[in-house]
């Protein structure tokens, strides 16, 4: 397994490679998938092409690409705090979740590592899996195609969860309802 940040980078690379979207066709039936090895639940469009890897789930429909990344931020930590692992996880989670700047820094690092420059950026604090989350939306161009990107990130028990949506076109328009349904279905372990 690679370093957690390299796994996140490869996840966004996968999202960028999954473009080739067509206009949305309306409401879709969703089916539940479970994350592995880090558990979470999410409802994805029935019939979507699915790719998985350690801590990664990517789904592609004709109109939308969806990527979920679950990364243990403490994995491979060579110098843990002088407290129990559970205590270290609580401290890390508290630090990140208590700071809008740190939450956004996690998403900004992803975008920078992929050399994605977004135009028309909208930032906000929302929720993901019932947790406070940083949310970034914008448009970027790759291979001559303008694409809409909507990414959400949160931390729970020292695990970074990111959910990203991408669609060709530059505006969420017809994809917004489907992405909202998928985002609302995202459930973190208790």
Q: How is this fold's topology laid out?
A:
Elements: H1 4-17, E1 30-34, E2 41-45, E3 49-53, E4 56-60, E5 65-72, H2 85-97, H3 100-113, E6 119-128, E7 131-142, E8 145-156, E9 159-168, H4 176-185
The share of residues in helices is 25-40%
Query: Could you give the distance between the termini?
Result: 26 Å
**Tell me about the biggest sheet?**
7 strands, antiparallel
The percentage of residues in β strands lies in 35-45%
Oligomer: single chain
Strand order of the largest sheet: 3-4-5-9-8-7-6
The total of beta strands comes to 9
Please, how many helices? 4
The outline comes out as globular
Gyration radius from CA atoms, angstroms = 16 Å
Task: List the uncertain runs.
Answer: 7-26
Structural class: alpha+beta
**Average pLDDT over all residues:** 83
Order of helices and strands: HEEEEEHHEEEEH
Describe this structure in words.
The chain is of the alpha+beta class and 190 residues long. Strands 3-4-5-9-8-7-6 form a seven-stranded antiparallel β-sheet, sandwiched between helices. Strand 1 and strand 2 form a beta hairpin. The chain starts with a helix and ends in a 5-residue tail after the last helix.
């Amino acid at each position: 397994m690679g370093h957690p940040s390299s796994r996140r980078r490869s996840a966004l690379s996968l999202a960028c490679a999954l473009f080739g979207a067509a206009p949305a066709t309306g409401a879709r039936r969703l089916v539940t998938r479970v994350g592995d090895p880090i558990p979470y639940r999410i409802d994805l469009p029935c019939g979507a092409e699915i790719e998985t890897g350690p801590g990664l789930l990517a789904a592609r429909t004709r109109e939308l690409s969806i990527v979920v990344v679950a990364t243990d931020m403490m994995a491979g930590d060579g110098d843990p705090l002088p407290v129990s692992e559970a205590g270290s996880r609580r401290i890390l989670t508290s630090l990140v979740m208590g700071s809008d700047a740190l939450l956004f820094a996690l998403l900004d690092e992803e975008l920078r590592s992929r050399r994605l420059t977004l135009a028309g950026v909208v930032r906000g604090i929302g929720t993901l899996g019932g947790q406070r989350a940083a949310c970034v939306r914008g448009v970027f161009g790759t291979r001559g195609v303008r694409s809409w990107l909507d990414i959400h990130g949160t931390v729970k028990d020292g695990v970074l969860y990111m959910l990203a949506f991408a669609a060709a076109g530059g505006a969420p328009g017809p994809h917004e309802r489907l992405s909202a349904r998928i985002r609302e279905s995202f459930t973190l372990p208790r």
